[in-house]
Protein backbone atom coordinates (compact mmCIF):
# COMPACT_ATOMS: atom_id res chain seq x y z
CA UNK A 1 0.00 0.00 0.00
CA UNK A 2 1.18 3.51 -0.71
CA UNK A 3 -0.02 7.00 0.10
CA UNK A 4 0.14 9.62 -2.63
CA UNK A 5 -1.33 12.90 -3.73
CA UNK A 6 -4.76 12.50 -5.30
CA UNK A 7 -5.10 13.15 -9.03
CA UNK A 8 -8.14 14.08 -11.10
CA UNK A 9 -8.02 10.52 -12.47
CA UNK A 10 -8.89 9.29 -8.94
CA UNK A 11 -12.19 11.18 -8.88
CA UNK A 12 -14.35 8.25 -10.00
CA UNK A 13 -12.89 5.89 -7.39
CA UNK A 14 -13.28 8.53 -4.67
CA UNK A 15 -16.87 9.18 -5.80
CA UNK A 16 -17.61 5.46 -5.49
CA UNK A 17 -16.34 5.45 -1.89
CA UNK A 18 -18.02 8.63 -0.72
CA UNK A 19 -21.31 8.07 -2.55
CA UNK A 20 -21.71 4.61 -1.01
CA UNK A 21 -21.23 6.24 2.41
CA UNK A 22 -23.75 8.98 1.57
CA UNK A 23 -26.36 6.51 0.28
CA UNK A 24 -25.96 3.68 2.77
CA UNK A 25 -24.80 5.08 6.13
CA UNK A 26 -25.29 7.74 8.78
CA UNK A 27 -21.54 8.48 8.77
CA UNK A 28 -22.24 11.73 6.95
CA UNK A 29 -25.35 13.85 7.37
CA UNK A 30 -25.50 14.82 3.72
CA UNK A 31 -27.78 13.14 1.21
CA UNK A 32 -26.28 14.89 -1.82
CA UNK A 33 -24.06 12.56 -3.82
CA UNK A 34 -20.81 13.87 -5.29
CA UNK A 35 -20.03 13.98 -9.00
CA UNK A 36 -16.70 12.97 -10.46
CA UNK A 37 -16.32 16.53 -11.73
CA UNK A 38 -16.85 18.14 -8.32
CA UNK A 39 -14.33 15.78 -6.74
CA UNK A 40 -11.79 16.47 -9.50
CA UNK A 41 -12.18 20.21 -8.81
CA UNK A 42 -11.67 19.62 -5.07
CA UNK A 43 -8.51 17.64 -5.76
CA UNK A 44 -7.14 20.46 -7.90
CA UNK A 45 -8.12 23.14 -5.36
CA UNK A 46 -6.69 21.38 -2.31
CA UNK A 47 -3.45 20.15 -3.87
CA UNK A 48 -1.30 18.65 -1.16
CA UNK A 49 -4.33 18.55 1.13
CA UNK A 50 -5.92 15.63 -0.75
CA UNK A 51 -4.36 12.18 -0.40
CA UNK A 52 -5.28 8.66 -1.45
CA UNK A 53 -4.21 5.24 -0.23
CA UNK A 54 -3.76 2.78 -3.06
CA UNK A 55 -2.78 -0.81 -3.46
CA UNK A 56 -2.17 -2.44 -6.82
CA UNK A 57 -3.51 0.72 -8.49
CA UNK A 58 -6.81 0.49 -6.61
CA UNK A 59 -7.87 3.40 -4.38
CA UNK A 60 -8.55 2.11 -0.86
CA UNK A 61 -9.51 5.44 0.64
CA UNK A 62 -8.83 9.15 0.80
CA UNK A 63 -8.18 11.92 3.29
CA UNK A 64 -8.49 15.68 2.86
CA UNK A 65 -8.02 18.81 4.87
CA UNK A 66 -9.87 22.06 4.39
CA UNK A 67 -10.23 25.32 6.31
CA UNK A 68 -12.07 24.83 9.58
CA UNK A 69 -13.68 28.28 9.59
CA UNK A 70 -13.12 31.47 7.66
CA UNK A 71 -11.15 34.43 8.92
CA UNK A 72 -7.48 35.00 9.70
CA UNK A 73 -7.80 33.85 13.31
CA UNK A 74 -8.47 30.30 12.11
CA UNK A 75 -5.66 30.19 9.52
CA UNK A 76 -3.69 27.49 11.36
CA UNK A 77 -6.68 25.20 11.96
CA UNK A 78 -7.91 22.63 9.43
CA UNK A 79 -10.76 20.14 9.36
CA UNK A 80 -10.00 16.67 8.10
CA UNK A 81 -12.13 14.13 6.31
CA UNK A 82 -11.16 10.50 5.86
CA UNK A 83 -13.08 7.65 4.25
CA UNK A 84 -12.01 4.12 3.35
CA UNK A 85 -13.55 1.25 1.47
CA UNK A 86 -15.01 -1.34 3.87
CA UNK A 87 -12.26 -3.83 2.89
CA UNK A 88 -9.51 -1.33 3.72
CA UNK A 89 -10.74 -0.64 7.25
CA UNK A 90 -8.50 -2.10 9.94
CA UNK A 91 -5.66 -2.70 7.48
CA UNK A 92 -3.52 0.37 8.26
CA UNK A 93 -4.63 2.57 5.36
CA UNK A 94 -6.40 5.05 7.64
CA UNK A 95 -3.43 5.42 9.96
CA UNK A 96 -1.09 5.90 7.01
CA UNK A 97 -3.37 8.53 5.45
CA UNK A 98 -3.65 10.50 8.69
CA UNK A 99 0.13 10.33 9.30
CA UNK A 100 0.84 11.69 5.81
CA UNK A 101 -1.86 14.35 6.15
CA UNK A 102 -0.44 15.48 9.50
CA UNK A 103 3.06 15.67 8.05
CA UNK A 104 1.91 17.83 5.15
CA UNK A 105 -0.20 20.00 7.47
CA UNK A 106 2.78 20.65 9.75
CA UNK A 107 4.82 21.74 6.72
CA UNK A 108 2.01 24.18 5.91
CA UNK A 109 2.05 25.66 9.43
CA UNK A 110 -1.14 24.01 10.66
CA UNK A 111 -1.42 23.92 14.45
CA UNK A 112 -4.72 22.04 15.02
CA UNK A 113 -6.63 19.39 13.11
CA UNK A 114 -10.36 19.04 13.78
CA UNK A 115 -12.61 16.08 12.99
CA UNK A 116 -16.41 16.32 13.00
CA UNK A 117 -17.79 12.80 13.44
CA UNK A 118 -21.35 11.50 13.32
CA UNK A 119 -22.51 9.98 16.61
CA UNK A 120 -23.67 7.05 14.49
CA UNK A 121 -20.00 6.25 13.79
CA UNK A 122 -18.42 5.17 17.10
CA UNK A 123 -15.68 3.35 15.19
CA UNK A 124 -14.44 6.70 13.85
CA UNK A 125 -14.36 8.14 17.36
CA UNK A 126 -12.26 5.16 18.51
CA UNK A 127 -10.00 5.47 15.44
CA UNK A 128 -9.33 9.17 16.02
CA UNK A 129 -8.80 8.58 19.76
CA UNK A 130 -6.19 5.92 18.96
CA UNK A 131 -4.38 8.50 16.80
CA UNK A 132 -4.19 11.08 19.58
CA UNK A 133 -7.32 13.12 18.92
CA UNK A 134 -9.34 14.23 21.93
CA UNK A 135 -13.08 14.73 22.11
CA UNK A 136 -13.62 18.43 22.76
CA UNK A 137 -17.33 18.73 22.19
CA UNK A 138 -20.61 17.16 21.23
CA UNK A 139 -23.37 19.04 19.48
CA UNK A 140 -26.64 17.21 20.14
CA UNK A 141 -29.09 16.70 17.29
CA UNK A 142 -27.47 19.10 14.80
CA UNK A 143 -27.77 16.60 11.94
CA UNK A 144 -30.79 14.85 10.52
CA UNK A 145 -30.83 11.96 8.09
CA UNK A 146 -33.39 9.24 7.42
CA UNK A 147 -35.72 10.77 9.99
CA UNK A 148 -33.14 10.48 12.79
CA UNK A 149 -31.53 13.28 14.78
CA UNK A 150 -27.76 12.82 15.00
CA UNK A 151 -25.11 14.36 17.22
CA UNK A 152 -21.87 15.78 15.90
CA UNK A 153 -18.81 14.71 17.91
CA UNK A 154 -15.96 17.22 17.67
CA UNK A 155 -12.42 15.96 18.11
CA UNK A 156 -9.11 17.74 17.73
CA UNK A 157 -5.39 17.14 17.77
CA UNK A 158 -2.71 19.75 18.28
CA UNK A 159 0.03 18.85 15.80
CA UNK A 160 2.57 21.64 16.26
CA UNK A 161 4.55 22.61 19.31
CA UNK A 162 4.05 26.36 18.85
UniProtKB/TrEMBL annotation:
Enzyme class: transferase
Location of the N-acetyltransferase domain: 1-160
GO molecular function: acyltransferase activity, transferring groups other than amino-acyl groups
Pfam families registered for this protein in UniProt: Acetyltransf_1
Keyword vocabulary terms for this entry: Acyltransferase, Transferase
E.C. numbers: 2.3.1.-
Highest taxon of the lineage: Bacteria
Protein name per its UniProtKB record: N-acyltransferase YncA
Native source organism of the sequence: Ruegeria denitrificans
Amino acid sequence: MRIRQARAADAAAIADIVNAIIKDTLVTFTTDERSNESIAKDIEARGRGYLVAEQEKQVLGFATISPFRSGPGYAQCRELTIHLTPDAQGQGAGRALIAALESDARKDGVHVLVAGISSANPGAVAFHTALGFEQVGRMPEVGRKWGKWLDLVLMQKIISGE
